[in-house]
Amino acid sequence: MSQEKRVQKEQSKWMQGKGPMSDVVISSRARLARNLADFSFPSREQKEDLQEVSRQVVEALQDLPYRLDFLALDQLSELEKKALVERHLMSINQAGPGPEKGLALDRDQMISIMVNEEDHLRIQVLYPGMQLQDALRLVDEVDDALEQKLKYAFQEKWGYLTCCPTNLGTGLRVSVMVHLPGLKMTGNLQQTLQLVARLGLAVRGLYGEGSESAGNVFQLSNQTSLGLREEEIVDNISGVIDQVVEKERQARQELLQQREVDIKDRIWRAYGLLAYARRITSEEAIALLSDLKMGIDLQIIEGIDSSILSQLMVLIRPATLQLINNRELDEAQRDIKRAELIKEKLGGGEKHVR
Hints:
Elements: H1 3-8, E1 25-34, H2 47-61, E2 68-72, H3 78-86, H4 92-95, E3 102-106, E4 111-115, E5 121-128, H5 132-147, E6 154-155, E7 159-160, E8 172-179, H6 181-185, H7 189-198, E9 201-204, E10 217-222, H8 230-258, H9 260-276, H10 282-297, E11 301-302, H11 308-315, H12 318-324, H13 331-345, E12 352-353
Antiparallel strand pairs: 1-5, 1-8, 2-3, 3-4, 4-5, 6-7, 8-10, 9-10, 11-12
């Protein structure tokens, strides 16, 4: 697959949403930060040395048991880089200016490796639903294979050396993307997120650090990795996520029991607008899709795949939408094309709501 086609691929496997707890958990991510021993951190390194880092990584990729293609980011358009961010395959920081940046992707776009971001390597695995153990297993396999070819910066006392001190130790950051409309509607969202923070997790928006929440979607992740084994980090966050999922499911049932007509009316209206609108903004669409997904998961709406939010929250974003249409679009044109895409994904508005 060519570099252009790899970037333009509409669906990443994590967007299919067919994992455990997928009524609440959209995706699971495991990411390892690594640096090469003989080089300074990317922010302090000269371009020639970053070129050598990139060369060594590309060479190491050839011997991996996984087929990963390397994309040189300076050969991509700004639109293509933004689309990769929208798909959660690389960070906003990686899409910004800087020499010798790259991204390695497998065919399913579940494995992505950022090269010369904040660290020399950010090895990431994304799974649909609550599959942190599987994500950890796969990211460790990729990391072990790379470590056979690359000399990592490591000290016995501090573990893997990273640019940010919070990544010292294992270098592991695990995060879970959760959909919490029930807690928002019952007024219990802030209390729950404060509890999550007290239990040691970071709460971030749709695109991680510094981003805003959209569609009642949040990313919950560990804050530090020093002094903990990888399994302990995953077990800790899994225990918190279990509590969050339980609270969200209870909130949805409470809404059905106490405000059934209002909730069904809200879901029906969301469906109607999404299925029949002729133009729609990104912000409005994400909010309505949040209501629609809750209706699907509560079996109020039938005949629509439950992964609709996972898919459309990416496909309707500005850069991805323009790549799908193979041309640049102004804001008004994007609103029209977004409405057309949503109607197509919903089956032309021919589904039935109970």
